[in-house]
Structures
1.
Amino acid sequence: MPDSQPQQPHSSGSSGPDPAESGALLLCGARLTDGRTVDVRLGGGRIEAVGTAGSLTAHATRVDLGGHLLLPAAAEPHAHGDTALSAEVEGPVSYDVPDVQRRATESALLQLGHGATAVRSHVRIGDVQGLGPMEAVLQARRSLRGLVDLTVVAVPRLLTGIAGADGLAMLRDAMKMGASVVGGCPDLDPDPTGYAEAVLELAAEHGCPVDLHTDGADPARLGRLAAMAGGLRPGVAIGPCGGLGRLPVEVISRTADQLAAAGVTVVCLPQGGCGGAERRGAAPVRLLRAAGVRVAAGSGAMRDASNPVGRGDPLEAAYLLASQCGLRPDDAYGAVSGSARAAMGLPEVRVEAGFPAELLAVRGDRLAGALSLAYSRVVVHRGRVVARTSAVREYCDSAAAVALDLPRQGRAKGNEPGRPKGGGTAS
Ligand SMILES: [Zn+2]
């Protein structure tokens, strides 16, 4: 029997709607984290029904997800689309609009392939490039619509003193152009508290969220920020807060209480830092969570000068939270999915009827195993398969595996995961 309020299946037969046109999709035989094996019907960008495998019939494109664990999709709360993929460029990095647009698009697609169907990208404004990189990432955003939701954080330089007036004017222009989050690096301004004040005022004026870079090494400064941030409804996030992790435990706990009371989210970057963070180091994830702070995990730099090997992979961030910070696998995955979406102001996703069809299928049957060996992935955005990665491993001599009846991975003929079956295309 179906488990969660399925709607009546669409009529089958030649008179029924074309599944490709109706956009209906039936994900078949996927494993859920509670151990059930289910079919999931998607339509209109939402999950229409979840039922035991074989229980749902629909005039829909079928996608075989046998052998896959189906999860709410990941989201990327801290990317740098303007500098991504620039580490191996010969000579000075170009910030011409076409070059930035290309890098921002390619990096967002890489992150989509990893399973992030929403990406928040921090983009520097000011410097000699002015608003060019912002314009480029906004163009990437438009061209990627329907594949991945890209939002842009404007990151101004100085906002106080004489230079601050120009910075503030440019920040206002960036918001008018389409940046939807006010960001910045208060630690780099001569007056960090004045900088944070300016950012919070402008965000309140525009009714938009704030997302600030900070090392978090100055607890008094964080306390002042928490006191100011409490009133901003759309939400305030800070990160990567590696410096906070180097403070004494009692100082971290007191600061964590202040952040929790103000509803400030901490976005940690387990895979490394980014150009906006002065020093590396891990945020004190467990102490923050214990105090009730929402902790999300992002990727930070992707192959730019500050991290030439950055992967931008949310499952790797979750893996590191589990292996380095000792989080349980479901909490670690929650940091890159549910908490990341909440930090970005996106609605919750569960694999249940009525929720947004933002999903990630990873080969495996348990979350811990998926975080350990998460190579093959199928990504669903707005009810469509938008990315597919297949990995095949073969051993030269598999007699040992056969003798012990060990699971072996291989591609079943005509049954490639994520490929549509029964006509039509999946994406
Ligand atoms: Zn950053």
Note: Residues 62 and 197 are 52 Å apart (CA to CA).
2.
Amino acid sequence: MVRGGSAAQEGDQAMSLAPQVLMYATAVCPFCIRAEQLLRARGVVEIEKVRIDLDPARRSEMLTRTAKRTVPQIYIGETHVGGCDELIALDRAGRLLPLLAGEGA
Ligand SMILES: N[C@@H](CCC(=O)N[C@@H](CS)C(=O)NCC(=O)O)C(=O)O
């Protein structure tokens, strides 16, 4: 069973290849909302949201893992995409859907 996944992919086998989508976020964050909208528009059903405003340990985790202080910070599988701007750039470059499909960036 996959935690991430794209609705564009049909069938259990395809779903099992879809990487997890994880987003470090805060409650009040327009960039997080925009990023989520784009991910949803590209068919992502499940996003693991890590609320760093509620959990200082997870904030430290984000800082250590990404070396970034702003939210969102988005992971698709093991790939650190970055923030909202980077997500949009990836999409415009035609590399977001392949990444969501587990085909690498
Ligand atoms: N260019 C970034 C901007 C992200 C950003 O500014 N996020 C705000 C919250 S919406 C933030 O983390 N502000 C805290 C800070 O700048 O330290 C992106 O596209 O993700």
Note: Confidence is low (pLDDT under 50) at residues 7-15.
